Amino acid sequence: MKLNNTKLKMALLASTVFLVPTHAFAQENPDQEEDREQAARFALQGLDVEEITVIGRYIPDEKRATSEISNILDAEAFTLAGDGDVGSALQRLPGLSLVGGKYVYVRGLGERYSATLLNNSGIPSTEPLRKVVPLDIFPTAIIQDVLVQKTYSATYPAEFAGGVIDIRTKKVPDDFVLEIGISGKYNSEATGKTGLSYDGSNSEIFGFGGSLRTIPSEILQDVTLESLTPDQLEAAGEAIPNIFSIDNESLYPGLGFNAIYGDRFEVGDEGAFGFFAAVDYDVNTRNRVGVRRDFNVDNSGPVENFNFAPEICDRTGFEGGGDDCGLRQTNLDVALNGILSLGYEFNSSHSINYTGTVLRQSTKRSLIEKGIFAAERDALRTRSTIDFIESQVWTNQLSGEHNVSLFGDSDTFQEAKIEWRANISRSDRDAPLRRNTVYEFDDVLGEFLILARPDGNVTSYSALDEETREFGLDIEQPSYIGDFAVDFAGGFTYAEKERSFGLVRYNFAIPSGASTDLRRLAPEIIFGPTNIDPNGIRLTEIFDASDFYDATFENIQAYFSADIEISEKARLSLGLRYEDSEQIVNTVDRTTLDPIQVTQLGEFLLPAATFTYEIIENMQVRLAYSQTITRPDLRELSVAPFIDDERNITVRGNPTLRITEINNYDARFEWYFDAGESLTVGAFYKEFSNPIEQSVTAFGEGRLITYINGQSAELKGVEVEVEKILFLQDWFDWNWLGTREVFMKANASYIDGETITAEADLGIVTNAVRAFQGQSEYLANFQIGWRDYDRGENLAFVLNYTGRRLSLLGVFGAPDEFESPPILLNFAYSKEFEVGGRPLTVSFEADNILNDSIRFTQAGLVTEGYDLGTTLSLGFKYSF
To answer: What number of other Cβ atoms are within 10 A of residue 582's Cβ?
Structure first.
């Protein structure tokens, strides 16, 4: 709250000084304490003071100051724990878990129930199967801090149940900054091991697939292949790059590079201009060797749909099939990110800022699955998959902040803050030249032969494009009405989104009379130019009308809120948000070929309230209630099929999905017993109407995931968090610690969720009542280490525990599938040295020291599992 007249300003200064307990400064210079007391006396007497310099380590805690229940991670926390991306950092907060290494679940709720913002603006997703942007694409090198707000306030979008994650990029610096960093990584499951790869372009090392993978112009000259002449069809088949086979190759260490450059210049008497630019590059290899299975259940028990496991090669009848059954996968991941921030301050009251970000990630994937498939369980097969996925998010935001007196020189209404933002964001995801080939072992010939049918080889190209445009205006008006300090706030946001998706698939049709001598050869020979002929092997199109869709989303938003200081101990925040949205999805029925247009309207008026009461000094409780919603994603309303790259499962939307409505109840006790030290205990309860969840059914030789509205759901839980500085030098006379400040951070969560399946889905889903997908019952984090501001030294051990969670629903009598995430023990150390009069920071990190693995289980059997390995990294950062 801002108060403008002199008397109120002096009182506020005094309260700020007295807010910090005196014992927080027990180790500081007594002269500093005297300066503080003198400042307080001046303030209470209403005396004018030109300048008071207070030297200390106390920094206001946003978690404490905000009216809502929240957590903050800043740049210092990233450095301390050695976090390279936002996703890995957030999993250390209470109630948060990381799924798939990139998706953050807040309080056990999937990404659909949480909103991710970048500098308070929405951003499009690069993932066709997810509603939010994967958080591993945000390198911590360009992030100032991240706010996770767990209680709803009307200032944020209405799509909220788990929380709001607001990622705030670094802004224009106050002084010159130039830093260059380089790092190397070793992974025990990848580096120096033999992995998989295939021929590609030289630009892959920078994350660009190159023209090699684009659809040939010979195919694009007409809509369908049937309209081509025999000669044109032959030319089209020969134009596609003849790349199929996967080779073994040695895997190299990972490499990282980042650079930061910024400065600030004074302009005139009051103005200032500044800029900040950063680039971050990282290349890393992941290697998986494990199993993948799927089961149904009949009267005799579990029945395999498919099984890629080492023991399959030992089955009777598979002699000669080799000894490499199972799942083998190698991913080359490349991240290339950049940020540019330009800021101009006209004076202390008016400023504008431009922030542009480019976040790129690409994955070159080589996958071999060897085992049995659903159709022929007595046949041994090898399926190979190669693809290259390029994902990119770019944002352009122009924003301004203005402090103005809307009501003149008034003691009632103080100086108001007006903030506006205009944002254009775009995401692109291209998966060009994805290829699958399937070979089956022939017992008579004792060799593998390529399947001479449409699923024996498939070549596909897909592209997802999404653009978001948003304009927002927020006004905060501090006031002092009678004896009450009140912050009024209101705002308006207009957002619109356009998305398009397309998928084309081709097959090289092998004539029924093709000889086994041809089918036993490598695919580059089988589908080489010599064999592609109108009377031989020819290119055909696998057509599905639902492979294409386009969609639009429009949302008009407005809110009003009041933050009322009822007394010195009580604070009440009230808000009301209005949202009016329209989603339109256009696609085609895959059976009738009739066009389908799905229109979903949603108009809501949603209240929110949070009450904060200070029991005694530095000890307070919060109570909160709100109503929120979550909408189906545009993709979830479309019947267009997608492939889950991580699990290799087909996913298709449901045009009949309805909007979920949620009631949220929260309570938290907070004790800030010293600077940088606190204890919080929270509880929450949520009610869901029409919850959106996944459902699974059989689909060919695998599974099909779709989406349904459950009948109802509820979620409840408890969270505990403690942060404590350990004065071991005083407690145990450990003087060898010197000026090192030893700290401990720990949190734990218990979450109990229950969803009830809708009647329409009963008989398909095995368990009508179950937990939320992705919800772990128990979460825990423990962090201990030290920091030394004088020596520039940081050390931390970080332990993360995520309990078993539901991954896929069981259907037709089969039990649910559960994931057992690894227990992660990480170590991070960094030390600053002086080289050439400038600081050089050396860092060392060890991730997954326990070398734990990932396991998915169903009916007591492992459906997928592989080792992650231990990762060691060494980095150097030099500041000029």
So the answer is: 15
Contact 142/278 with Cβ under 8 angstroms?
yes
pLDDT band for position 131 (cuts 50, 70, 90): low
Residue 42 Cα to chain centre, angstroms: 49
Nearest to 364 by CA among 441, 284, 291: 284
- CA-based nearest residue to 483, from 68, 3, 40: 3
Query: Nearest-CA neighbor of 314 among 304, 306, 324, 305?
Result: 324
Read off φ and ψ for residue 220, nearest 5 degrees: -75, -10
- DSSP output for 100-115: TTTEEEETTB-GGGEE
* DSSP helix/strand/coil, 692: strand
**Rounded Cα gap, residues 238 and 216, in angstroms:** 10
Question: Tell me, what DSSP letter sits at residue 62?
Answer: H
**Gap between the Cα atoms of 264 and 269, Å rounded:** 14
Amino acid symbol at 794 = N
Which helix H or strand E contains 728, and what residues bound it? helix 728-732
How far, CA to CA in Å, does 569 sit from each of 7, 9, 348, 611? 21, 19, 32, 11
- Chain segment 67-106, per-residue pLDDT in tens: 677 778 887 777 776 676 777 777 777 777 776 666 777 7
Kindly tell me the burial class for residue 252, based on how many C-beta atoms sit within 10 Å of its own C-beta (0-12, 13-18, 19 or more): middle
pLDDT at 451 over 70: yes
- Per DSSP, 840 falls in state E
How far apart (Å, rounded) are the C-alpha atoms in residues 539 and 240? 10
- Going by C-alpha positions, the residue among 779, 864, 849 that lies closest to residue 819 is 864
222 vs 217: CA distance, rounded Å: 9
Q: How far is 600 from 583, CA to CA, in rounded Å?
A: 5
Helix, strand, coil percent content, the chain, rounded in steps of 5: 15, 55, 30
pTM of the model: 0.83
Question: Which tokens sit at 445?
Answer: 């010939």
Neighbours of 428 (CB within 10 A): 17
Pick from 481, 671, 474, 489: which is nearest to 573 by CA? 489
Q: How do residues 812-860 score in pLDDT, each as one tens digit?
A: 777 888 999 999 999 989 999 989 889 999 999 999 999 999 999 988 8
Of the pLDDT bands very low, low, confident and very high (cuts 50, 70, 90), residue 21 is very low
**How many whole angstroms separate alpha carbon 609 and alpha carbon 856?**
41
Query: End-to-end CA distance of the chain, in Å?
Result: 39
Q: Give the count of beta carbons closer than 10 Å to the beta carbon of residue 170.
A: 20
| Both structure tokens of 272 | 């200032």
The answer to whether the CB of 193 falls within 8 A of the CB of 287 is yes
Nearest alpha-carbon partner for 690 in 129, 113, 157: 113
Nearest Cα to 151, choosing from 620, 612, 625, 579? 625
Are 611 and 580 contacting, i.e. CB atoms less than 8 angstroms apart? Answer: no
Q: What is the pLDDT of residues 352-409, one digit of tens each?
A: 999 998 989 899 999 999 988 766 667 889 999 999 999 898 899 999 999 999 888 7
Query: What is the rounded distance in angstroms from the CA atom of residue 284 to the CA atom of residue 573?
Result: 46
The residue to which tokens 């064999």 are assigned: 531
* Interacting residues of 409 by C-beta distance below 8 A, sequence separation 6+: none
Average pLDDT, the chain: 83
Q: For residue 188, what are the CA distances in angstroms to 252, 255, 267, 847, 854?
A: 11, 15, 54, 11, 15
**726 class by beta-carbon count within 10 Å (0-12 exposed, 13-18 middle, 19+ buried):** middle
Which helix (DSSP H) or strand (DSSP E) does residue 44 occupy?
A: helix 30-44
Q: Is 603 helix (H, G, I), strand (E, B) or coil?
A: strand
DSSP 383-397: EEEEEEEEEEEEEEE
Please give the single-letter amino acid code of residue 447.
Answer: E
Q: Kind and range of the H or E element at 226? A: none
Which amino acid is located at 519 in the chain? R
Q: Is 350 exposed, middle or buried (0-12, 13-18, 19+ CB in 10 A)?
A: middle
Three-point CA angle 123, 126, 128, nearest 5°: 120
